[in-house]
Write a structure and sequence with these properties.
The chain is of the alpha+beta class. The protein has a single domain, classed as Cyclic Phosphodiesterase, Chain: A. Helix content is 35%, strand content 21%. The radius of gyration is 18 Å and the shape is globular. The chain starts with a strand and ends in a 6-residue tail after the last helix.
Length: 240
């Protein structure tokens, strides 16, 4: 029986990090083990609210899901991850918060980050040679008639409309919600998130995830990004 796999390059916090524990527990799925987690017990319609993001695990997309190009292999993809991670770069540092974005709720940066935009753009470009071309079904699913002209161009060039200047870093917590439900749940999630007391988060790793057939995405590789110490020293930061 032939299996269909998709891969993605995500930012996923380390398994034992408070941020990951918060997100995985809320979604009810551990992307490291591939196992479900007990549902939260005090949110009405929790399962329906979290159904869509649960299938992807708690993450932020850097290179959107793709099938491997003809002739590409998982080993080559893993090697590309290692090469990418080994390039010295400015490590984005964000102050995370829970907020509404496009009708759903997510963990997002409190302020824009040029380093984060650059990291995402680099991921889109550097892994694109391993991506299979869009199928007509893929294209139709993105509803190109509803996209802006730049987004349609990105869909054709990169296989996904929300990249480059259209990219917004987010770690999804819900599907799309009606306004009143979204506002009430936002206040509750913001209160839960505040208990973590996270004043910053370094986006200092990439994670390779795989989806087999229609199962949830699961982590199959973790890669620490190499920090550009020379650049940091110029800015007055100490060595590692």
């Amino acid at each position: 029986m032939q299996h269909h796999s998709r891969f993605a390059i995500y930012y996923v916090p380390p398994r034992h990090a408070p941020l990951y524990q918060f997100g995985a527990a809320w979604l009810g799925y551990d992307g490291y083990s591939g196992e479900p987690l007990p549902p939260v017990g005090d949110v009405a319609d929790w399962r329906a609210i979290t159904e869509e993001p649960r299938g992807y695990g708690f993450h932020a997309t850097l290179k959107p899901p793709f099938a491997l190009a003809e002739g590409a292999t998982v080993d080559r993809l893993i090697d590309t991850c290692r090469v990418f991670a080994a390039k010295p770069r400015a490590i984005p540092l964000i102050t995370p918060k829970v907020d509404a974005i496009g009708g759903f709720l997510a963990v997002v940066p409190s302020a824009p980050s040029a380093e984060l935009q650059q990291l995402a753009a680099d991921c889109v470009r550097d892994f694109d040679g391993l991506r299979a071309p869009l199928t007509e079904a893929d294209r139709a699913r993105r509803r190109p008639e509803a996209l802006s002209a730049p987004q349609r161009d990105y869909l054709e060039r990169w296989g996904y409309p929300y990249v480059m200047d259209q990219f917004r870093f987010h770690m999804t917590l819900t599907g799309r919600l009606p306004e009143l439900q979204r506002a009430a749940l936002l206040a509750q999630l913001q209160q839960r998130f505040a208990e973590l007391a996270l004043d910053h988060c370094a986006i200092d790793r990439i994670v390779l995830c795989q989806q087999q057939d229609h199962a949830p995405f699961r982590v199959i590789g973790e890669f620490q990004l190499e920090r550009d110490d020379l650049r940091l020293r110029r800015l007055g930061f100490p060595n590692r």
